[in-house]
Structures are given as C-alpha cells and as structure tokens.
Write a structure and sequence with these properties.
- The structure holds 2 protein chains of 2 kinds.
- Chain A is α/β, with parallel strands linked by helices.
- Among the domains of chain A are: 28-191, ABC transporter type 1, transmembrane domain (ABC transporter transmembrane region fold); 372-410, no CATH class; 415-647, 3-Layer(aba) Sandwich (Rossmann fold).
- Chain A has helices at 2-19, 31-44, 48-62, 66-81, 86-138, 142-147, 150-192, 194-241, 243-248, 252-305, 319-360, 454-461, 484-489, 505-510, 518-528, 531-536, 554-568, 584-598, 610-613, 633-639, 642-647; strands at residues 372-378, 384-386, 394-399, 406-410, 415-422, 431-438, 443-448, 469-474, 477-478, 491-494, 503-504, 544-545, 572-576, 602-606, 618-623, 626-631.
- Mean pLDDT of chain A is 81; it is low at 1-29.
- Chain B has 2 domains: 2-318, ABC transporter type 1, transmembrane domain (ABC transporter transmembrane region fold, Up-down Bundle); 338-582, Rossmann fold (3-Layer(aba) Sandwich).
- In chain B, 64% of the residues lie in helices and 10% in strands.
- Classes of the chains: A alpha/beta, B alpha/beta.
Chain lengths: 654, 584
Amino acid sequence: MPNKDRLEKKVAGKEMPMDGKMPAGKPKMKKGMLKRLIVMLFRFYPVLLPVIVFCIIFSSIISSVPAVFMQNIIAVIEEHVNTGDWSTAKGEIFTWVLYLGFFYLLSLVSVFVSSQLGAILTQGFLKKIRGKMFDGMQSLPIKYFDSHGHGDIMSYYTNDVDTLRQLVSQSLPNLITSAVSVTTVFTIMLSFSIWMAFIVVAGVVVMTFVTKTIGGSSAKFFVRQQKAVGRTEGFIEEMMNGQKVVKVFCHEKQSGADFDVINDALYEDAKKANQYANMLMPILNNIGNVLYVVVALAGGLFLLSDVPNVSLSGEAFSISIIVPFLNMTKQFTGNISQVSQQINSIIMGLAGAERIFDLIDQQPEVDDGYVTLVNAVVAPDGTITESEKRTGTWAWKHPHQADGSVTYTLLRGDVRLNEVDFGYEEDKMVLHNVSVFAEPGQKVAFVGATGAGKTTITNLINRFYDIADGKIRYDGININKIKKADLRRSLGIVLQETNLFTGTVMENIRYGKLDATDEECIAAAKLAGADDFITRLPKGYETELSGNGANLSQGQRQLLAIARAAVADPPVMILDEATSSIDTRTEAIVQKGMDSLMEGRTVFVIAHRLSTVKNSDVIMVLDHGHIIERGNHEKLIAEKGTYYRLYTGAFELE
Amino acid sequence: MISMLKKLMGCVREYKKVSILTPILMIGEVAMESLLPFVIAKLVGQIEAGCEFSVIVKHGLILFAMACVSMFFGGLAGITGSKASCGFAKNLRHDLYYRIQEYSFENIDKFSASSLVTRLTTDVANVQMSYMMLIRIAIRSPLMFISAILMAFIMGGKMALMFVVVVPILGFGLFTVAKKAMPLFRSVFRKYDNLNASIQENVKGMRVVKSFVREEYEKKKFNRAAEDVCMDFTKAERIVAINGPLMQFCLYANMMLVLSFGSYLVISSKGSSMGVGQLSAMITYGFMVLSSLMMLSMIFVMLTISAESAERIVEVLEEKPSLTNPENPVYEVKDGSVVFENVNFKYAKTADRFALSDIDLTIKSGETVGILGGTGSSKTTLIQLISRLYDVTDGSVKVGGVDVRDYDLEALRNQVAVVLQKNVLFSGTIKENLRWGNAEATDEEIMEACRLSQASEFIESFPEKYDTYIEQGGANVSGGQKQRLCIARALLKKPKILILDDSTSAVDTRTDALIRKSFREFIPETTKIIIAQRVSSVQDADKIIIMDKGRIMAVGTHEELLASNEIYQEVYTSQNKGGDDDAE
C-alpha cells in the first residue's frame, strides 16, 4: 500500500527529529548524495552559500576562543588576589574584557548574518527545488503517474522536502558548528594541557559507545513503531471510510475491540522506541558531567602533585588553566551530544534528497514530432497558407527533411488505427491487431468488459502510450511525426473520473481554452447542458470549487468536464464514460446538447450504458484486446452476437 | 481553552501516576544538575587553597555520586515520560475511535472520513509530542531557571543581581519574536497546505493537464504559489532567526559582566567573599538560566502550534451523537410494515431546503416496493429514515407499528437491513466479511445467503472459495460481485425489512432477476424495498414509488404507472424503446 509507505516516511520524518536523540544505527552516509546536494546549493547560491559557511565557521571559532581570554583574566586575578589591590589589576582586566567584547561582537555579527542569510537560502532553495520537481514532473509521461501511487508522489513534496529543510536549515549548519567548535576547543585544550585533553578524549570514546548502543536499540524499536503506525493508520483509514457500514450492521463494539488490539500494540512499540530515545540525552549529559568531575579531579591532582604539564603553550599547571579547561570540557561534550542528535536527521535528510533527486532525474516524455498545428487560410483554389492570426481553420504543417519543402494538410479529424498491437508491459499485449477507421464527423463507440482495452485505445490515439506495432494516422499523418502538444490540442478528452481544479466554475471551463471569453465559456456550458445547474449555484459561474469540486455531484462534475472540452472546440473528441454518473433521465435531457456538441466532430465514445452508444456510426465490441464485432446498432442486433446479448441484458458488463 | 484541557486531561487515566512521576523525577535531575557547579566551585576553591589530596577525592566521589543520581533520575524520567505520553496518545485514540463509533450518519457527514483519519493520526501524534515536552522539558526548564538563579544568589550574592538586568532583556526579546512569528507561521502553514493540495490536484488530474496541453500553465500557476509561500516563510523564519544572536548577546553580556565584577570582588576581598571557582560557576549558572529561558520560548511556540491539533481532537470528542437510544426502548420489531406519516426532513437544521417533503407512505409487511427517481430526488434519504440512520424533522416513521425513535437502535437495525449505495467490504476473508451480518452464522447459513444473492457461483470458482481474502475496499472483486456479497451480508441478518439502495446496478439483468426471484421464493415474509435505476429491477414489485425533488410523485404498479405517470413513461421508454424496436 502506497499509503502506508507514505505514512511510515511521514512518521519517520515527523517524530524523530523532535524526539531528537535518535538512533544512529549504521550511519550509511550517502556521500554522493551529500556532494550533489552541496553542489546544487552552490549552483543556486554561488555567493550566498560561501558567505554563510564562512560566517558559521568564523563564529564557531570565535565562540571557542574566549577560553583563552578567561585564562588570562584568571591569571591576572591569581596575581593580585593576595594583595587585594584592585586598582592595579583593574586596567589589565578591563583590557582583556574589552578584547573579549570585541571578539563577541564579531561573533554576534557573523551569527546574525549567517542566520538571516540562512533563512533566505533555506527557503529559496526549497522553493527552487520544489519548482524543479514540479517542472520536471509536468514533463513526465503518463506512464509514470500510472505506475506510481499518488500518495508516493505527494510524499516527495511533503515529507521529503520537509526532511530536506531540516537538513539544510539545521543539521548541516549544526554539524559545521559542532565540528569547528570541537576542533578549536580541542586545539586550545591541547595548548593548555595534553594530559587533560586525553581524559576528555577517553570520555568522548565512552559517549560514542553509549550513543551506538542505546541509539541502535532505539533505531530497532523505531522501525517497529513505524510499522505499527502504518498498520494503525491503514486500519483507521479503512474503518473510517466504512463507518456507515459499521453503523448499519451494529458492528461498533466489534470494531472497537479490533481497534484496541492494534492500538495497544502500537503503544507497546512506541513506548519502547521513545524510552531509548529519551534516555540517551540524560545519559550523555551526565557522562559529560562525570567527565567534568574527572577533569576537575585530575586537574587538582596534577596541581597538587606537581606533575610537569605537557602542553603546546608550555604553560605550567595553574588554576588559570584548570578553570577555563573545565568550561571547555562542558562545551566539548555539549557539541558531541549535539552531533549524536544530528546524525539521524542527516541520514533521513539525505534519504529524502535521494528520493527527490530520483524524481528530478526521471526521464521526461520524449517528443520527436515535427509536424505542428497552425492557423490556416484556405484560398478559393484550395491552396492552404499559414496565418499568424486565429482563423478558426487549422492545418498540419509538415516540413519534409529530404527536400526542405513544407506541405500543409487541413485538420479534419480523420483517425485511423491500422493493425495496432500494444501492451503496457512488453511481454503482455493487451491489444491485438486492432483496426479502427473513423472518418471526419463519425461517431465510433467501444463496448466491452473492464480490461477489454477500450480506454487503452484512447491512450494510444493521444500518445499517452506508444504502440508496439501497427500504425495510427491522423489526417493521413503518422501520429509519431506530430508534436505531442499539437496532437493533444486537436483532441478533446472527457474522462470518467473528472478532475476539476481549485478555482471558480468559470476558470474550470476556461481550462479548455485559456483565452476564451466569458460568453464562450457560458455558451459551452449551455451546449453541455451544465448551464442549468451552474446558474442555480450560490454564485453562479463565480462559485468557488475546491477539493475537486466536492460540493458538486458526480453528475454535475461530468457536465462541467464536458463543457471544458466543448470550449476547447477540438475536431476530435474522446468521451470515456463521460456520462456514466448522469442518470438516464438527465442524460436524455442533455442528450440534445451532447448531440450538437458531437456534430461535425469525430467522436470516440466509451460507455457502459448501451443507450449512450446506440446511435453511433460504428460500434466496436472489444474482448480481451480483440475487436470481436463491428457495425452499427441494427447490424449488431441482427447478428445476435455478444452485443445482442449485452443489449438484452443477458450478459454482465464489468 | 480550560474546558479543552480538561477534556484532554481526562484521557490520561491510568497513566496519571507516570505523568506525575515524570516531572518529580525531573526535579531530581535538575536539582543535581544545578548543585553540580556549586560543589565544583567548592572543589576549585579547595584546590586553589592547596588542600589535602583526600579532600579532592572526597569531593570527587560526591560529584560522581551526584552525576550518577542525576543520570538515574533523568533516565528514569525518560522511561516514565515515554510511557506517559505514549499511553496518553493511546487513550486519546481509543476515546476518539469509540466516540466515532457512537456517531450517527449526521455526525459522520459533518466530519468526513479523511478529516477523521487526520484527527486520529497526525493530530494525536502532535498532541503526544507536546505532552511529552510538557511533562519533561516544560518542567525542566522553569525549574532549571529558578534553581540556577537561586544558586547564583547563594553563591554570588549581589553579583546575581545582573540577572535582573539580562533576563528581562532576553525574555522580552524572545517573547516579542514568538509573538511576531506565531501569526506568520500560522498563515504560512495554511498556505503551505494549500500549495500541497494544489500539487495533489495536479498529480491526480495529470491526464487532464496533458490532454489540454496545460503543462506550462500549471508550472506558472505553481511557481506563483510557491513564490508566495517562499516569501512568507522567509519572513517568518528571519524573525525567528533573531533568537540565536539575541540569546548569544545576552550570554556574552552576562559573561563580560561576571568577569569584570567577579574579578573586582575576588581581588578586592582577597578571595574571601568569592573565589575563582565561584566565578567560573557563576558563568555556568548564567548559561543555565539563559538557555532554559530559550527552551521555554521554544516550548511556548511548539505548544501553540499543537493547540490547533488539540482543538480538532476535542471537537470530535465533544461532538454529541445526534441519535440516542430512548429511555425505555422497545426491543422487539413485530413485523416488516413501514409507515411514513407527514414526514418532512432536512439534513441540517439550518438548511433552507427540505430533502423530503410531505411523505405519506404505507408499506405492508412482506411487500416488495420499488423506488425510482433521478439523481437528487432523495430516494436514499427516504430509506435511511426507516432504520433511523437519520431522524425525521417533522412527522414520524413507524416500523412494525412502533415509531422508530422508540426502538432500541441495535434491535431496530438488526431487523432493518440496508445495503448501502456506497458499500464497503473490509479486508479479510469472504467469510469474515459475511459474518458482519451475523457473527454466529454457520457455514451452511453463509452458503445459503450467497445462493440467494447469486454469489455462490463465483465464490465457488475462487481457489480458496469462502476463505478468499478480500483486499481493502474489495479491490480484488468486480463491482457486480461486490454488490452480491454485500447483499448476502445483509441477508445473513435475517431481517424483517431488507433495503437495497441501488445495490444491483453493476449486476447484469439476468442475475438481477434471479436475485429477485430467490427473494420471492425464499424470504417471502421479508419486506423488500428496492431503489433502482433500471425499470426492469422494479417492474414486478407490488408497488413502485416515483420520486422527484424530495416528493413522492406517484405510487402504483408497473401497469398503473405506465398508464398514468409521465416520469415513469419517460424513464421506461428511454430504457426500452430501442430494445422493443429492434430486438424481435
């Protein structure tokens, strides 16, 4: 189930960074991914990115340096504490404090700059990557959408972009800060005392070990929790959608009991997962504390026992070294536990980046067509010339590569399928040797069970899919030579599952022809028989539709979809179960509109209801990808074959 | 707000103990953590003074013990905290789910399945997270704040007064930032949701987009919306990004103050009123005070964000089921007769249009009644009143001579079986699905019901027969098969009234006729009410009801209606004309 996968991702994305302390597991750092991400960031922001990184590094170095000043100040104190002479110490101390202040100021400025620029960069980057994803997605072939769950595609935009945001805005900067701080602090530590620095290193080893152990268990239970959440969500979704059936069958108690079982299991897994995650932080913190104590002890010991200090600066042990060292220990361990918390969201962020890149990298729909659709003027002698303006007459412009000449063919709507074979998968053909001839103005109907291949034929005519064998010609031109956009512009399609877009009714109709006037849209609605119900809507044509027109009935949505196709005014129309949700009586009423809509156009009709197809010029009966009967209604009835049995109701259509 | 919290807290129940224990354990952890710098300051003081080795060891052991205690408390609080929050979430889900089970159709219509799913999942997860923060960090931060200030005063005396300067600055700054950013975030989250909704629309409608060659148009539309979201988001995040530098500014100011004043105190008192160790501890306390303040402001933001989730959850919990059992319910349904008396009905009290008006109707026990009418003629509404899925607005509906509002709901619905138009099979075997009708049904009874509904033939053709697994929503059976299974499921109730709401639309006419035949032969005493689109499905009924725009236009037999009713004639001819002409 795509839904569950999505949910698991969602949970992973949502809960872990919040609870923080997550599992390291095996950090499978996808180095290539990280590199690509950084390169991309750099491409988008060649100036901003280096500035930000510089600021982050600069401020984290600076914020580690004050330990040095502190050491100096304490040394001054040490020097004067016995005399109690403040006035002589004053000058020196204030100088150091001012130096400190100066560094702090620099740090503040760079933190301010990097955080402000960071906000701009993060959001800008997310916008650009969303745009890239969306633009790329528009050019993908229909096959991609047929073979990927919509929930999965959506999760690229929601969960994966969210984890990427976490990565770019938090984890990566934090990682840089921590890494720089740890290095600087450690260098200063070494310069103070190598012995004591070793103690800190030992502590870090322990912390890493603990993170690995506890984090590992936590990761294991988090995976289990995600599965449990997926299960629960699946159950909830199914039951909420069937809640009315539950009521009708008085199944409430049983349904509640079933839910309790699943809910309790989720609780057990969630509890364990969170327990480990929650424990990590206090444990790491207190290891930090213990380390602090150990350092203090060791410092005291060294001081008392007069062990010679080994340090880069060559200074001897003194209280002025130990006190700042203690502060640095805190800083050091703090940074280490920061990193331990970031690892998880980095892994998740990179996994999200991988999925996003996967979408961006998809092969776009190939279009080798070179025949285009142009406005045309037909001279009295029959010659066709191209026109800049909209003339209402269209022609196919066909450049010939061989001699560089151009011929024009009038757009008429003659569609012929010649011995076409096709399969969605190469080894599984769903259409066999299908030939269909539709002359301009003819109405051709397809009848057959679900899976017989009716919709597949229409998918081939507008090249959502390409045929395996045979030929399809449009006005005598092989459709492979026609530019896909122009081919599709010459075909109007109304599908069974209507998709409307958020916006007004008028905008939805205008979708068929973006420059249509209000009058044109209303005329199209009238033609489709939709005007009647639209004018009865609270705001008529300006009524806002949302959620795929949730406030309309299925039948009304279909009428709108027909109006949308009508305003486009294409010479060829494909009606795929376009009136299936309109009851027979309403259908009879809109029939007149439909008839005038179809007049003068080549129309392909797919319908479950035979009354819809009865008046077609040709009816094709499809069975398992073969055309088994063809002819008009009278002929097929007389043949007393499958169509006859369907028509008399002796046969079940699925 | 308070009643909302009360309602939510009511779901803590058996996890009250751990919920209270967690903050108490946190107190232990905080106490130890804030005492640590104090003891260390002492130790440093001792070292400075050049003490004995044993003193250092003693202090070291004390410190080590304190860290262990702190770790113990903190770790334990982690365990109890997760138990409390996960348990709380479990109870929330339980209460929500059980409350929804009590919902009537009206309640279910009000929320929509998908919004109920969100409330049960995402919203509960948000509240769970906040709860965990609340009992752990929201206790920890103020405690830390108070104890650190306390310790600072104990140790630094007057010097701690500088917190009086620094804390309000930071507090005010954080508060202003949160206040400014909150409404921005709220609105930008909504915009962000809309953006995602429009992506979803695009993905779902990709065939339409491509058919009309609207890729470029969609890209432009998307980029406009994305730009908008980006700008607002940047604005909000830039405000929040002030927090970091602000916090650092206060921290640095604090450090500089501590160092200058501290040095003065140490030197001028010759180390008697303050030592270097204390000086360093003051810096640590300063850090603790300010970071806990920062944490608090973050929690504040988090809580306000999840308050919306909490609101949505409470909304479900507080929704009163619009149908309840009467006080002294009737448990026995005498027969299958149905009477509508002057019934008017509208779905919402505020609706200005009645869905049903002036319905008077008498159906005798054992009759077969057909209902015909166009979309929106309220056929479904009519039959839903019989099993009291909704209550009438005026008038009354009687089943077996008793007002449906006087029956025990379960008793009534067990006798009035409805096969809904939007029917659902659940994931599970065929047998499991059918047993919804009667949990104790024997295999023989199940097979019998399937024979009546003409389902046994295709079930037997499956390799696993009655144990065939049905996928969610019945995705692996065809529409007609699904409908026949749903009819069998209803038949297993052995109801006195059986209602089919367009339940054979995907079944071919021959099978449809066989189903009706077996109804006639095997369950003659059951009242059968059939809503259909096809005239042939109701043609042989005892009476046919013609509905239009929420009113009964005519009642009669096929012959009577064909002779007198215009709508019936129209429907009949539209479905039969061709056949009569050609199918000789």
